[in-house]
TrEMBL record, chain A:
Protein name per Swiss-Prot or TrEMBL: ABC transporter ATP-binding protein
UniProt family annotation: Belongs to the ABC transporter superfamily.
Keyword Transcription: no
Pfam families registered for this protein in UniProt: ABC_tran (PF00005)
Domain ABC transporter: 5-236
One GO MF term: ATP binding
Keyword annotations of the record: ATP-binding, Nucleotide-binding, Transport
Provenance organism: Microbispora hainanensis
Origin: domain of life: Bacteria
Length: 284, 233
């Protein structure tokens, strides 16, 4: 793997709370999913990579450039598409104006070229028919797609997507998966999510973070394998101490210590994730 | 013309009046859009500036030295607008824009220009409404009457460049409040300790403001990279 992004000893604190604790990781071409509970440090890491936040310590190389320098930051920003966790909008702008404004900030000064690129991005996310609709009149899912469209402007080499599937309905999520997987064929795509299904379906690599550290770095299949032998199906309600739920066929699926009468079940990414972050008992 | 281009042009909404006026004044289209879309340039902000100027003009009509209130207030207005034009807490889309090549100094300076020109234009419109008697009462000491009526201009430019230069060290709103508060405090203090309340607006002070504009602009140019959102302050 040729690293497009390299992180060494990255540290970030907010007051007394350490959010990134000496992180070391590299990312190459393809789609990588970041999983982790709230406060794990995913957003902070992505913000550092997107050059909107300076780390306290450590080294970053993004697209071969150093974001700690002004020229390095500028170079990164010219090749970056970034969807923040809370993408704000000007409600009085139309969808087209919103993208047009970002396109100008991305140094697209030629009006015709810019408008063509804006139209292309709107088409990519299926919002062409909403081009002249004010942002305040768009639904939450449409706004999320608009936020994704601004990240796609200019065909960036690196896409940093912080929770891109939030607010999307199932069909839109599937369309997003298709789009992101296509982009990931030739680019580096980093996405953080709480949706383990998206990771299983979309990412060739998954990184699980908690407390500013990396708990797992491998394939979705490898993450699922963490749960091998610790996922079971039984006919009786398990006792306290594990995470379980009643499935559609009336059986109990347990993650963690298997009840006496249960049989092993197919491990999943979700099971591996829950076991890694140690939330099975807490969730129960 | 390709179908793709026709679609793009049809989807593009007509630019608002401000943007059309800027384009008519030969401002490049992309710059006109950035200037016209400055967050602080809302109707609410323009109305607030107009009301503040209205009170200052009224004070000039009603009080002996009310004209000085106008001269004191006018330089603060652009600074207040700039504080509302850029920043994480102010701009809902700041995080998105912070990751673009124009983040930091380029965008802040474009927005500051928009705010400054608007505030200066509104203040200039208020000047003819000032009572000539009040202006004369301040102007008696060796200064021609028309120049006193414009004595706020250089302080306004000095405050603006000072605010931006200070913002390379502290957050922009802190810089704006510090300078705005400091300016009002100094003008008030000078009035209290000297016989000449208009001293901060006399020619000697104007020379000082002119030098300050040049110096602070130089500081701003040298330290412009520190305005980047990823620079710790």
């Amino acid at each position: 793997m040729t690293p497009i992004v390299t992180v060494r000893g990255l540290r970030k604190r907010y007051g007394r709370r350490s959010v990134l604790d000496g992180l070391d990781i590299a990312f190459g071409t393809g789609v990588t999913g970041l999983l982790g509970p709230n406060g794990a440090g995913k957003t902070t890491l992505l913000r550092c990579l997107a050059t909107t936040l300076a780390p306290d310590a450590g080294e970053l190389r993004v697209l071969g450039l150093d974001p700690a320098t002004a020229s390095g930051r500028l170079g990164v920003r010219r090749r970056l598409g970034y969807l923040p966790q809370d993408p704000g909008f000007y409600p009085h702008f139309t969808a087209f104006e919103t993208l047009d404004y970002v396109a100008i900030l991305k140094e697209m000064t030629d009006r015709r070229e810019r408008h063509r690129e804006v139209t292309r991005a709107l088409t990519e996310v299926g919002l062409t028919d909403r081009a002249r609709t004010k942002v305040r009149k768009l639904s939450g899912g449409m706004r999320q797609r608009l936020a994704l469209a601004q990240a796609l402007l200019g065909g960036p080499d690196l896409l940093v997507l912080d929770e891109p599937t939030v607010g999307l309905d199932p069909e839109q999520r599937l369309r997003l998966r298709a789009l992101v997987s296509r982009l990931g064929e030739s680019r580096t795509v980093l996405l953080s999510t709480h949706q383990t299904e998206d990771v299983a379906a979309l990412c060739e690599r998954v990184v699980v973070m908690d407390g500013g550290r990396i708990l797992f770095d491998g394939t979705p299949a490898g993450l699922a394998a963490v749960a091998a032998g610790r996922v079971s199906l039984g006919d009786h309600r398990p006792g306290p101490g594990g995470l379980f739920w009643r499935t559609a066929d009336g059986r109990y699926r347990t993650i963690g210590e298997a009840p006496a009468d249960a049989v092993p079940a197919e491990p999943t990414v979700e099971g591996g994730y829950l076991l890694l972050v140690g939330r099975t008992e807490e969730a129960a | 013309m390709s179908w793709e281009r026709i679609t793009a042009e049809v989807a593009a909404p007509a630019p608002p009046l401000t943007e059309r006026l800027l384009r008519a004044a030969r401002v490049p289209g992309h710059l006109a859009r950035l200037l016209a879309a400055t967050p602080a340039l809302s109707r609410a902000w323009a109305a607030a500036v107009a009301v503040a100027l209205g009170f200052a003009v009224a004070a000039a009509h009603l009080a002996d030295h009310g004209f000085l209130a106008f001269l004191t207030l006018a330089p603060v207005l652009p600074t207040a607008g700039i504080a509302l034009a850029y920043g994480r807490r102010i701009d809902p889309a700041h995080e998105t824009y912070a990751a673009t090549p124009m983040a930091g100094a380029p965008l802040l300076l474009v927005r500051s220009t928009a705010v400054l020109l608007t505030a200066l234009a509104l203040t200039a419109l208020a000047v003819p409404l000032l009572p000539s008697v009040a202006v004369q009462s301040v102007a008696v000491q060796s200064v021609a009457l028309p120049s006193v009526a414009w004595a706020w201009l250089l302080p306004a430019l000095a405050m603006t460049s000072g605010c931006l230069a200070l913002a390379t060290r502290v957050p922009l709103p802190v810089a704006a409040v510090t300078l705005g508060g400091g300016w009002v405090a100094v003008v008030t203090a000078v009035g209290a300790v000297t016989d000449d309340r208009a001293l901060p607006f006399r020619p000697a002070a104007q020379v000082l403001y002119g030098c300050a504009v040049a110096l602070l602009t130089l500081v701003l140019y040298v330290r412009r990279h520190r305005l980047d959102p990823a620079e710790p302050r």
